[in-house]
Specification:
The chain has a 5-stranded mixed sheet. Strands 3, 4, 7, 8 and 9 form a 5-stranded antiparallel sheet that branches. It has a 4-stranded antiparallel sheet with strand order 11-12-16-15, with no helix packed on it. The chain contains 11 helices and 18 strands. By secondary structure, it is an alpha+beta fold. The radius of gyration is 26 Å and the shape is globular. The chain binds the ligand Nc1nc2c(c(=O)[nH]1)N[C@H]1C(S)=C(S)[C@@H](COP(=O)(O)O)O[C@H]1N2 and molybdenum atom. Ligand MTE binds next to helix 11.
């Protein structure tokens, strides 16, 4: 009996692999994903402490970890299903499929192929578990079919990505990075002045970037406006200007890498608003994306330019990469990424204060969150020119005002200013470097930035939720 029970659980899990594989393949054929849809359902409903813990623990691999978790969770749930009395298995399996199909029906991320995939997965589960599939051979056969289907789904996803990438390439260059900017401060291990798209952090609520056809895409400016607009990428490019700025995630704790500095190409929002003519009652500009994410910004300071926001279409001389919001996003330098505007933009809607943003529904503040001045230590290396010295270098930011000073403290001693590289723009990050002579042994280095508006980086450590993180990057070196 015991062996029978074990192989029953194994057999049920194997049916789960096959069901997931079939569902994912059908979904992927139409550009959807069963696994990503379930993952997104979890992300949309997870309570803030769960989201914060996941972000803190998973670092840059949050998407892979969520995807693996969904796959493993689905298979484990099927194994548990196999332990139910036979008459309950089929209805419970059907309920799983229906639940996943309901997630795939949600607007605006609705996907017909994912609804079909979820239904097929539910049907396979129900049929496969009617009798508890026993025997190692049976389990192996079901898993092999499932693994083959998952591999097929992967190929289909890649095919869709290739089509999307070639459509993006066809857009051609957007903005030219021109001369590669130089701040006179190159140092091995120091972050480049401009972060390439491949190294730029990615943060959003999706497991896979939405695919948007640039030829059919239009930016709609709608809602409380006298002149609604519908603009193509080419029309937007005609009014775009380049600017250098750092983007920082509100989850970037001291010394972490959820920040990047790029040369962006964008249309000033003040310009778009001038053409659309907001009604007097329009107080919020909702940046709405195809993934259902929204961020809203106050209209008046955007209109006057007091809050200089951009509708961004280019990054480092090229169209926005898929992960970073192709074809368009909104960016207000100085606001944390979560507050700065949506990627994969579909619409700018002018409305009143009744709108509630994606993260505000889960307890994040309505008020704009400004990036805290921050200095990061990127490298501590033996001096290249003078023996017995240590070269310390990093990046610092204080958008939108700019970095006035970066200081270093050794072993909790006094703060001493370091050398600053040439500033690209006040909203960009600025590199810094210094050389220290230290006695042998272990030493603690701390760096801090001060903004040109006089704000000194906070030294107390604070978690990201709900007002953004604070704290000083501290590094221990052995001389
Ligand atoms: N549509 C959409 N836009 C979004 C998000 C999202 O989840 N969906 N995440 C925001 C957050 S939290 C950050 S930090 C930035 C990250 O931009 P990046 O991935 O290009 O670095 O995008 C913002 N815009
Ligand atoms: Mo973020």
């Amino acid at each position: 009996m015991r062996t029978n029970g074990k192989s029953g659980g194994l057999g049920a899990a194997a049916v789960g692999v096959a069901a997931l594989g079939l569902g994912e393949t059908i979904a992927a054929a139409g550009g959807g994903s069963l696994i990503d849809t379930i993952g997104r359902g979890l992300i949309d409903t997870a309570p803030v402490p769960v989201v914060e813990a996941t972000v803190a623990l998973s670092g840059r691999h949050d998407k892979e970890i969520t995807r693996l978790g969904v796959g493993a969770g689905a298979i484990a749930a099927t194994a548990a299903l196999g332990a139910l009395p036979p008459r309950l298995r089929a209805p419970t399996a059907a309920a799983f499929g229906a639940g996943a199909a309901a997630l795939a029906l949600r607007k605006p991320t609705r996907s017909a192929s994912t609804v079909a995939g979820a239904s097929a997965a539910g049907a396979v589960l129900a049929a496969g578990l009617r009798k508890r599939p026993g025997g190692l051979l049976g389990a192996l056969a079901w898993s092999a079919v499932g693994a083959g289907l998952l591999a097929a789904a992967r190929t289909l996803h890649r095919d869709h990505d290739r089509l999307r990438d070639s459509a993006i390439r066809n857009v051609g260059p957007l903005g030219g990075i021109g001369l590669v900017p130089d701040d006179g401060l190159d140092e091995p291990g120091l972050s480049p002045l401009i972060t390439t798209a491949g190294r730029f952090y990615v943060a959003d609520v999706n497991l896979r970037p939405p695919r948007i056809d640039p030829d059919r895409w239009r930016l709609a400016v709608t809602g409380m406006v006298a002149h609604p607009l519908r603009l193509s990428l080419a029309e937007l490019a005609a009014d775009a200007v380049e600017f250098d700025a750092v983007m920082v995630c509100v989850h970037n704790r001291a010394g972490q890498g959820r920040a990047g500095n790029a040369r962006w190409l964008g249309v000033p929002l003040a310009h778009l608003l001038k053409h659309a003519i907001p009604e007097p009652a329009a107080t919020r500009l909702v940046t709405r994306a195809v993934d259902g994410y929204t961020i809203s910004l106050p209209v008046e300071p955007l209109r006057t330019g007091e809050l200089p926001g951009y509708l961004v279409i280019g990054m480092n001389g090229a169209p926005l990469p898929p992960e970073h919001g192709f074809p368009a996003r909104v960016f207000v330098p100085g606001l944390y990424g979560q507050y700065t505007g949506a990627k994969w933009l579909s619409e700018l809607e002018l409305t009143d204060d009744s709108h509630t943003d994606y993260w505000v529904r889960r307890g994040w503040p309505t008020d704009l969150l400004w990036v805290e001045p921050h200095a990061r230590i990127d490298t501590t290396a033996p001096g290249r020119t003078i023996a017995g010295t240590l070269t310390v270098a990093g990046v610092a930011w204080a958008p939108p005002h700019g970095v006035a000073e970066v200081e270093l403290s050794v072993d909790d001693g006094p703060w001493r200013p370091v050398d600053l590289g040439t500033e690209l723009a006040p909203a960009a990050w600025r590199r810094w470097r210094t050389t220290l002579e230290l006695p042998p042994g272990a030493h603690t280095l701390r760096a801090r930035a001060t903004s040109r508006s006089g704000q000194v980086q906070e030294s107390a450590t604070r978690a990201p939720f709900p007002a953004g993180p604070t704290g000083i990057h501290t590094v221990t070196v052995q001389v």
